[in-house]
Amino acid sequence: MTQGKRYVILGLVVLVMGAARLPLEQGLSVELSEKGLVPPKLKIDTGDKLGQTFSAVSLGGLRTLVATFFNIRAFSYFTEQKWSEVAETYNIIVDLAPHTRYYWDSGSWHQSYNAASYYLYQSNLPAMRRKLAWKESILTGRNFLERGIRNNPNDPILRQSLGYLLADPNKILAFGDTGKAFEESYEAYWSAVQTGKARGFAKRAALYSLARVPGREEEALELALEIRSEMPVLPPPTVLGLLYSLRYFADPNQSVLELVDDVFPTREIGYEVLGNVWLRSRDRFPVHGSAKALVLLENHFDIPEAQSILRRELALPMDPNDYF
Amino acid sequence: MNPLLMINAFTAHLGRISVIARHAFTQLVRMKVFYFLAFFAIILIGSNFFNLPQHEGPEAAGVNILRSIKSWSLGAMTLFSVVLSIVATALLLPKDVEDRTLYTILAKPVPRIDYLAGKLLGVLLLIFVSLLVMDLLMTGILQVRTNMVLSKQMAMAEARGWSVSDIAGLKADILAQGPTFSLQGAVLAVFLRATVIASMSLLISTFSSSTLFTTIVSFLIYFCGHFQADARAIYLSSEVGTDVGWVSQAIALLVSLILPDFQLFNVIDSVIEGQLMPLVIFGKLILVGLFYFSFYLIASWFVFAKKEF
After folding, report:
1. Residue-range domain boundaries for chain A
2. What is the pLDDT of residues A203-213, one digit of tens each?
3. What is the CB neighbour count within 10 angstroms for residue B253?
4. A29 at the B interface (CB within 8 A)?
5. Do B82 and A59 touch (CB under 8 A)?
6. What does residue B91 show for φ and ψ, rounded to 5 degrees?
7. Which of A97, A84, A225, A190 minimizes the C-alpha distance to A151?
8. CB-based contact B80:B193 (threshold 8 Å)
9. Nearest residue, CB atoms, A102 vs list B64, B265, B269
10. Is the ipTM, as predicted for this complex, more than 0.90?
11. B63-98 and A101-109 are packed helices; what angle lies between their axes, rounded to 10 degrees?
12. Cα separation of B136 and B125, whole Å?
């Protein structure tokens, strides 16, 4: 057999073997994708932005390394307060390393907190422009976090971060309807709890958000009682405050002092907790029956009316119109 | 045929392959290939102490450095193994021709398949030893660093009064970024990919006329092999009536049939990000690597068997 014939036979064998392995490789490829072991393909615009680095990235095993370098670039843009560049760089980073929680969390944080604060205090911009940029930055951060959750559905931390952002008193007005924002915050926290990997406070945070959703007080009370029964020691003050408020809401005709005695270990603690919840008006926690309880407790402790908590000035809820 | 004779013949084959493999290994070691390990150690130690400018909350403190160590290490391992598997394999046959060692070997009763298998295994042994040393260095440094991060994080969690289950969750999160079984799987994937590349380069070198040609073509195939899965997807999607012309379909099919799928070994990036690699995936990747190794070796022998020198 001549060498030429051998090459022809080899060519044919390569094609036949290729046809034999094609379905097997396709099956394995799909399996790896489903298990999240093969990173998704880079988007075309990411490839364009990567330029020459694209070749290195394509060669597998270097994507996370290149993402590290882009993270340094994003940090430089952050120090220069170039927010659109920060956002663009993070889009590249998460395309390279879509399963690294840190990049989704930081990318969102830069937009929702750093960029938003920057525009809040950027006095050389017209008020309307600042307000719009403030709102857009927060929404960009939220969208980024939601993309992160879609890419990492089992990650509780990203869900917690979304829950925190949606219930943040300094950001909530950017989302329009506050009740809806608290409801979405609750859903984010609750979905974190349901992953089974969330930290203990996620359930409490879910309660804090649910308690602030108008019309869902009954569910919030059930959740508060569940949390109370699960805690071997005294629950945090906010849980106690909510327990009082939600129980009062369920039955406004009950004896206030009896309810205080039932919820709080002592009346002193009850007075302190209810007073704090009353003063933290920016957090928008429900205060059903709090004023009534505070009056009765102040009488009980002989606190002069001039020193009453109820006479103190409340911190107003943050309204963007006050800043712009 | 007498089974005893078959065993003897097989043992003789193994003996010859082993001698040639050891010779090829020694030949490559004398080319000062292991100097790369010193660079690797510097990169690794550097990545351990290099404080990247980035934001870290108290709950993330230190975890990013673990990912950084893995990124740098596996990136260096990838580059080293790819370059070495192509260049070393491309050098083997032309160097033996140039030194006239090939004539001496082939003049003896050494089957050409034994010669090729020995040479290829020599290269693979070199890559294996190098990766093993790099893996040990990486695992060692990662273990030390993970322990440091862990003790810092545990102290933070206890100071904040975290519950036992929360502390256990935090510990599991940190340990997932340390030296894991999946990380060893990623190193194995690096080795398997190098095996496929070296075997493919061996096939090319059996009909190429120069080292440079083999090197360039192998790099090109390696690069294009990362897009084989895309070509295959285009071909398969066109089967269900999408708008792909027959020329594109034919090209996609040809690429899918000829090139190996290097994307399959790209589990490395996901493992660096903390994904777990199931044992069954290890097994399947090993089978893919063995398939390419055997196929390219037999194909190389088929071309090389009657080649005149």
Report:
1. 46-153, 233-324
2. 999 999 999 99
3. 21
4. yes
5. yes
6. -75, -30
7. A97
8. no
9. B64
10. no
11. 130
12. 16
